[in-house]
Amino acid sequence: MSKLWMKIKQLKVLRSLSVRIFCIIMIVSTIPGWIMHYGIMERYMDNAINVRVNEVQTQVKILADHLITYNYLLDKDNGNEVVNAELSQLSNLYDGRVLIIDSDFEIIKDTYGISEGKMLISENVVKCFKGQGAGSRVIENYIEITVPLEGKVASQEEKKVVGVMQASVSMDTIMASYEYLESRAVIIQLLIIVITFGIALFLSRFLLKPFDKITEAINEVKSGFTDEEIHVTDYLETEEIGDAFNQLLGRMKVLDDSRQEFVSNVSHELKTPLTSMKVLADSLLAQEDVPAELYREFLTDIADEIDRENKIITDLLALVKMTRTSADMNVEPMDINAILELILKRLGPIAARANVKLVFESRRKVSAVIDEVKMTLAFSNLVENAIKYNVDGGWVKVILDADHQYFTVEISDSGIGIPQEEIEHIYERFYRVDKSHSREIGGTGLGLAITRNAVLMHRGTVTVTSEEGKGTTFTVKIPLTYIG
Ligand code: ADP
Q: How far is the CA of 433 from the centre of ligand 1 (A)?
């Protein structure tokens, strides 16, 4: 049963809103009709039977009086002519049969003339003799009405039930009007269904028109005919969908712009070393009898430019890797102290060359679930920057700490600092505060973008405080356990 229900629910057509609206309108508008139909017909039947019972009972009671007046029960053999005529008139009128039963339960009169002399002991007859009054019941196509005949017996003063009169009247006329009404009701009902069908069909299409408009507009944007915003204001809902879509469109435009800017930045950055190399090579070729030292000097410059080109490409590849999804994360529990020590060891020679002192302060042993390659790259970039943008005889301090949820790595330096208004831009790709200085010391402007992406992939944060001429502090905060 539940499987069948699941199958029905999966049916594509039933998932359509217009089909649902159609069904709801059909159900809601036809059900009251059916209820009214059956309610009214039922009441009609009960009412018609009651009216008939009352009518016949009145007639029978009048006749009963006559019976008593003419002492009909005592004169069993011949009966009274007047009463007999009245009895047959009653049975003809209602297409029925009248029986008169005496106190011995013997039928003394039957308008059909077939049961006279027989006994009749039925529940209603007995009730009449017990003094419980008139009764009635429905048997198949007949209504049976019993009325007690009350008269004085001999010398006694009070009245006594001396016999019972039972009339069985046909329900044919009631049934005929019932059937007529029933057929009219069915016709009206069918008419309602046909009209509702038309209305439901129209409404289910008409009400959903605005949604078609939205789909059409989105499709136009999708197929590239236009990139205009969507405004379908027919419903609040369509307006909301339109707004959401427009916001998405806006985001996509921003992304597209930034992609284009990135591509042009990349081309520019990659072209710069090439231009330098071309100038160097051309100037060598333009001269004749160039001394060997000059060749050496120029070729050294060319080799430097090749190194630079190489570094830009390596950084770009690293950045691309960092902008992929979390599926590319290769996390495992790592000893953070060891990782930082290794980074500082590797950067030691560079620091020594720049005459910068490297200090590592570990406040506790930290183990965390991280992607080692990505995190190493992130910390290396920060420490390398701290060395690069330092002063002669300066220092770089790396402090590792943790609480029960996060570990923090603070990298501070005594360097040149970053101007306050530049801080918000430093994570942008290819952004450098002092382009020529950064170039001189081998910066590509990609380092902090790589760091930030690596940190975000670990669901961490990176913050910076800096004072020009005094130094900079980067603080990285990463959850101890990786949340995918
Ligand atoms: P780059 O390859 O030029 O170092 P980054 O993305 O690593 O590129 O850094 C962007 C810019 O932020 C740098 O050009 C530099 O101007 C500034 N910056 C980064 N770290 C520091 C620091 N520790 N001290 C001063 N300036 C810094």
A: 7
